[in-house]
């Protein structure tokens, strides 16, 4: 595993070979297929192609969905698109909640009441 320098010093990087060794169901052709389908994208640097820890987790999920559930390419794209969208929405919600937490108590209470009303609670 390669440990990147600078602000990414703690970020683990895997070569394709290390990634394949780390994930039992992963084969070189399967990794190539996932990359060609753009479901995972290696980081290109002077050291060559490497994969981040998040890529390792993503490839593990792709292998599980393929092996355990028999999902084909179209279904994999759909599932991963939904997961990516949910991840983005989660980040947006966290930012919104952080911004709301900085507001005065009366503003937070007013927004909380309005949200509950809109949701029918």
What summary fits the major beta sheet?
A: 4 strands, antiparallel
Globally, the shape reads: elongated
Low-confidence sequence ranges: none
Class derived from helix and strand content: alpha+beta
Task: Give the strand order, joined by hyphens, for the main sheet.
Answer: 1-2-4-3
Q: Evaluate the radius of gyration.
A: 20 Å
> Can you write the helix and strand succession as a string?
EEHHEEHHH
**Mean residue pLDDT:** 91
Provide a descriptive summary of the structure in words.
- The structure is a single chain.
- The chain has 121 residues and is an alpha+beta fold.
- It contains 5 helices and 4 strands, in the order E-E-H-H-E-E-H-H-H.
- It has helices spanning 16-22, 28-36, 53-69, 73-101, 105-118; strands at 2-3, 12-14, 43-45, 48-52.
- Strands 1-2-4-3 form a 4-stranded antiparallel sheet.
- The longest helix has 29 residues, at 73-101.
- It is elongated.
- The mean pLDDT is 91.
Characteristics:
single chain; 121 residues; alpha+beta; 4-stranded antiparallel beta sheet; 4 strands; 63% helix; elongated
Topology:
Blueprint: E1 2-3, E2 12-14, H1 16-22, H2 28-36, E3 43-45, E4 48-52, H3 53-69, H4 73-101, H5 105-118
Antiparallel strand pairs: 1-2, 2-4, 3-4
What can be said about this structure in brief?
With 121 residues, this protein is of the alpha+beta class. Helices cover 63% and strands 11% of the residues. It has helices at 16-22, 28-36, 53-69, 73-101, 105-118; strands spanning 2-3, 12-14, 43-45, 48-52.
């Amino acid at each position: 595993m390669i440990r990147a320098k600078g602000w990414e010093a703690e970020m683990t990087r895997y070569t394709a070979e290390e990634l394949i060794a780390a994930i039992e169901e992963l084969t070189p052709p399967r990794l190539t297929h996932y990359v060609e389908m753009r479901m995972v994208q290696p980081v290109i640097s002077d050291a060559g192609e490497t994969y981040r820890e998040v890529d390792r987790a993503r490839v593990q999920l792709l292998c599980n969905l393929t092996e355990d559930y028999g999902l084909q390419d179209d279904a994999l794209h759909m599932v991963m698109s939904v997961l990516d969208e949910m991840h983005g929405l989660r980040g947006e919600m966290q930012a919104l909640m952080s911004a709301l937490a900085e507001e005065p108590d009366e503003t937070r209470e007013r927004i909380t009441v309005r949200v509950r009303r809109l949701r029918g609670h």
